Amino acid sequence: MFYHAYNNYLENAFPYDELRPLTCDGQDTWGSFSLTLIDALDTLLILGNSTEFQRVARLLQDRINFDIDVNASVFETNIRVVGGLLSAHLLSKKAGVEVDVGWPCTGPLLRMAEEAARKLLPAFQTPTGMPYGTVNLLYGVNPTETPVTCTAGVGTFILEFATLSRLTGDPVFEEVAKKALRALWKTRSEIGLVGNHIDVLSSKWVAQDAGIGAGVDSYFEYLVKGAIMLQDEELMLMFSEYDKALKNYTKFDDWYLWVQMHKGTVTMPVFQSLEAFWPGMQSLIGDLDNAMKTFLNYYTVWKQFGGLPEFYSIPQGYTVDKREGYPLRPELIESAMYLYRATGDPTFLKMGHDALESIEKISKVECGFATVKDVRDHKLDNRMESFFLAETVKYLYLLFDPDNFLHNSGSQFDTGGVLNADCILGAGGYIFNTEAHPLDPAALHCCSRGRQEFLEVEEMMLDLKNSHLHSRSPSNIGQAAQGDTKNEIEIGPVTESDKKKRKAPILSCPSQLFTTKLSVLGQVFSDDT
């Protein structure tokens, strides 16, 4: 399935963003980045094709240019381009790429990801810190750009931007992502809900429908995954409060409806296909009972049509007018993969098999796989979104490949770091961004810890030098002659402020301070000889 789509993209659509499978040609959709190639890069390695991974990585480095006069979606560029490049960078050593000294804290794909992300930073220059939805990659935000952005477009940056900050040492990315999250948190209603679209200049809600689907979905996803990846209690607290409000006001018979964010009254009793990520996300916080019940509801819709329509009326049990399409989205398959990993229940393999058969039977054409225009009669549309190769095929493959390296539980690992230190990498616990690009949390810890230790060594050497100069000054030579000949350099105690700065976050394994590691080896003396 993957290679039928991928090879047809290369033959018929490259260097355009996406393949048009019915006419066997290509089109630019999200910014003219050869987007399908970036989105599919880590999938190549997950399928075991390191040779093609290496070829494409070189090709992207030679061809992709972000200094172009293009209006790009800030949200889509982040999750697909920045996320795809970061993931490929972190997997490049496993793919057999000859990496830079100091990898994963440096490297060409990381530099490309950073360059792309810097093009998005002007969008965050608002009074609230919440970003505009669109930015021109050459000129910044257009003066006539609308300030109205969807909730997900504000709150879906922390994974990619924090990864960039921790790997590169530049805090600006994580800072703007955190500021946007906190600004959004402050706008929730009296009953604890957020709406669908917000004015990023005034913080006023423009669309006040609250739910877990389109326009909101990945905001909640990134609170959970950001909390896990960064060991951030603040983010988990935010999600926990939202989760309570969502269960109180939007949940009915294990479906999640849309309600008015201030009153809690139902506005749309529909299920949206994008909501199908929710059970998988619930599995990450151990809420398996609720996840199973909701998943089974969604699975009944799949079995009814052979795919999930964009909107499904829960009271009528049927599609909603003009929302009957299925663009080969991954969300239900994603949840099946997570829940199968958590429970081992063969129901999820059955769902995966159904999805595989449906997609092959309904959407496969000579030049790839086509979007289903209408799930009722299975008419097709002339588009294959890049997420088909980034997410849908990837999650299906991972569902049926229990021994894939991404499922690693710590039995295998690699090493690396800023100072060629003893960083453990690739040992599992990968966090998928909302475009299914896996990120290794250990790399973030490795690079930030490596830089901290580098600074501590630098500081210690400076102290040694200053102490030595002080001990050799005329005023101190006499004192030394009078018997003060001990030249031992004491490593001072860690202050309370130091402890607060270096406190191990919840759920993480505390790392020893560099000075503590030295004291295990013995005390440090200056050499006067």
Biggest sheet features:
3 strands, antiparallel
Strands, count? 23
State which percent range the strand residues make up.
5-15%
Choose one word for the global shape.
globular
- Structural class, from secondary structure content? mainly alpha
Question: Helix content range of the residues, please?
Answer: 40-55%
Gap between N and C termini, in Å? 70 Å
What's the tally of helices? 19
Which stretches of 5+ consecutive residues score pLDDT under 50?
477-496, 498-529
Give the averaged pLDDT, no decimals.
Answer: 89
Strand order of the largest sheet: 5-6-7
Radius of gyration: 26 Å
Labels describing this entry:
529 residues; 19 helices; metal-binding; unfolded protein response; hydrolase; 23 strands
Structural features, described:
The structure is a single chain. By secondary structure, this protein is mainly α. Helix content is 47%, strand content 11%. The strands form 10 sheets. A 3-stranded antiparallel sheet has the order 5-6-7. A hairpin with a 2-residue loop joins β16 and β17. α5 packs across α7 and α7 packs parallel to α16. The C terminus is likely disordered.
